[in-house]
Task: inverse folding
């Protein structure tokens, strides 16, 4: 292939735009955990009960995850067809416009639909942003850049939590947070108008136009094993994050919200601080310990810490903030790890599509799992600790995956056109 030069300034602009896109992505992910109970109280009025609040939190989360699953696949595919930067710009506009519309809803059902539509854009940013950055930076810089990009999502949650501590979200004041979430539309317009395209994608553009890559190709001969293992290793931390970890926020709101409306934001901020550091560190740990061993360590530690958070401590107890911080750090190591590992699994031709399917397929299972836990929450009489502890066990499944992970440590993203071999022994 002919090398297409890209200046250092252009690389920095690309990395900066992708980082901002992921920060605002994180704002969307962190919005409903701190706002859902207040929204439900406002929209439901006298019909509201704490149990119904938990059920609607689960529904909002499931809608977002379902939208993100479709968005990651469809907009990831669009990134292989139209270009990474164009698809990323469309994704940003999608989540911004529909988030802003949330300030005008009058019913729970309207909000539910909008959370699904927001999810389309949320899911589309990750595969296109990560593919764009992975293809625009030299191999020697990629672990550091990947770590920075991965931390963007949780940095966005951290920023949101700090804003909510100063301007609290209550049943009488919650629409402002959706209006704020609409501002990234300006970034989406700028990305579409000015952001350079991936030189690796431009090299293969003519080939892609002649024979467009499709989802079916990822499940065809030579790629189906790679795609399947990619889906599984993404599903485990995704289900763990939303099926277990995120229940800590409404739990904190229920226990501490009556005396301190900002307590839920304080808890989310501690978790997000740990998560920002964890998602940055995941790629570095994968390099130092190896992809295989590091995934196993993260699986065992995440299972133990999540169980401890829901069973050995509780909101307002002095140990709770420390466990929340540690759990946030360990469970998000996966996402820095995945940001390094997933692009190495797939050849350039289907990299954004493959990464999008792998990363977002877990959200289909997550949507179903979170919806189920919502009804289980009601059956258990609103017991957050029992739901969180039971859901923590999903992290243990990561140990089983170790026998099937292909070795990508010697992969060169600039030249490889085939997937690494997946072991089935």
Result:
């Amino acid at each position: 292939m002919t090398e297409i030069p890209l200046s250092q300034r252009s690389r920095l602009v690309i990395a900066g735009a992708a980082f901002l896109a992921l920060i605002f992505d994180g704002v969307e992910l962190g919005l409903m955990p701190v706002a859902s109970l207040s929204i439900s109280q406002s929209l439901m009025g006298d019909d509201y009960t704490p149990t119904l609040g938990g059920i609607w939190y689960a529904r909002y989360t499931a809608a977002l995850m379902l939208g993100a699953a479709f968005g990651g696949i469809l907009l990831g595919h669009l990134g292989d067809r139209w270009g990474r930067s164009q698809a990323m710009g469309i994704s940003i506009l999608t989540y911004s416009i529909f988030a802003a519309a949330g300030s005008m809803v009058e019913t729970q059902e309207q909000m539910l639909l909008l959370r699904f539509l927001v999810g389309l854009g949320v899911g589309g940013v990750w595969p296109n942003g990560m593919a764009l950055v992975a293809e625009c930076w030299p191999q020697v810089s990629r672990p550091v850049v990947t770590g920075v990009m991965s931390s963007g999502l949780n940095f966005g949650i951290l920023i949101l939590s700090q804003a909510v501590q100063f301007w609290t979200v209550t049943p009488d004041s919650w629409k402002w947070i959706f209006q704020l979430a609409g501002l990234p539309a300006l970034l989406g317009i700028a990305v579409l108008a000015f952001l350079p395209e991936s030189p690796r994608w431009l090299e293969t553009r003519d080939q892609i136009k002649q024979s467009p890559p499709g989802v079916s190709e990822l499940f065809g001969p030579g790629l189906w094993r790679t795609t399947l293992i990619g889906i599984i290793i993404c599903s485990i931390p995704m289900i763990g994050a939303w099926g277990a970890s995120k229940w800590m926020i409404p739990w904190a709101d229920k226990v501490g919200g009556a005396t301190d409306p900002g307590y839920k934001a304080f808890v989310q901020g501690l978790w997000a601080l740990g998560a920002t550091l964890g998602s940055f560190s995941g790629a570095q740990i994968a390099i130092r310990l190896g992809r295989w061993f590091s995934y196993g360590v993260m699986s065992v530690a995440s299972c133990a810490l999540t169980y401890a958070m829901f069973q050995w401590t509780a909101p307002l107890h002095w140990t709770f903030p420390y466990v929340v911080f540690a759990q946030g750090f360990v469970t998000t190591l996966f996402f820095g790890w995945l940001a390094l590992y997933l692009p190495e699994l797939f050849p350039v031709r289907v990299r954004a599509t493959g990464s999008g399917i792998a990363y977002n397929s877990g959200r289909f299972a997550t949507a179903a799992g979170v919806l189920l836990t919502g009804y289980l929450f009601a059956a258990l009489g609103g017991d957050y600790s029992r739901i969180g502890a039971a859901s923590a066990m999903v992290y243990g499944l990561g140990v089983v995956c170790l026998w099937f992970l292909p070795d990508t440590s010697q992969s060169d993203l600039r030249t490889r056109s085939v997937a690494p071999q997946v072991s089935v022994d």
Notes: The radius of gyration is 20 Å. The CA atoms of residues 12 and 55 lie 43 Å apart. The chain is about 75% helix and 0% strand.
